[in-house]
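Notebook p. 47: complex prediction with 5-O-phosphono-beta-D-ribofuranosylamine.
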Amino acid sequence: MTKRLGVLLSGRGSNFEALADSVDAGRIPDAEISVVVSNREGAPGIERARARNIAARVIPSKGLEREAFDRQVVALLQEHRVELVCLAGYMRLLSPYFVAAFPNRILNIHPSLLPAFPGLESQKQALEYGAKFAGCTVHFVDENLDAGPIILQAAVPVRDDDTEASLSQRILREEHRIYSEAVTLVLAGKFKITGRRVTRTET
Ligand code: GRF
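Predicted complex, structure tokens below:
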């Protein structure tokens, strides 16, 4: 049975596009992206979704209380019978209501090796801190910032001549790769969560 994904974004949408490419190429088997949602008008990711004939909706979050907004998003995801929610540059914390609606069914991609450098401008944080390795993390989402159990990570070296842009680009290539891998793993159900540890299983 085709698994239905929902993607939430606030901006550019390159991770969404990488997931869509992986679905099209069969790297994420038996899946489709059923709907893309943005909380921001004018998010380029919405145009990218429409260009691929994927249903795309903007639900403006501005001025709304967190749970009231999340109720609208959850209702839309449920309308589209979404089974797995992928946050892809979605600049909002989720309410407990949202998290409870999709238990262990919400993933996020973050451009650092968590728990280092959560929050905004992680690549800049890594560079300024003087880290020699940076990277990205796909994790389950709870109501805290960049905090749920880690599914996959990829590390990249920080070079002496790196700028925020060059480091971000090196990390982004890995983001696009491991997000699809993590989605495939979770959809196949071949993992277990023990405390904070996510480990692979055979079935
Ligand atoms: C990515 O670096 C992602 O890790 C972070 O926000 C950025 C979104 O980029 N959460 P894009 O919109 O997917 O191109």
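Notes: The first strand starts at residue 3 and ends at 9. The chain has two domains: 1-103, 108-203.
Next step: compare against the earlier run before touching the bench.
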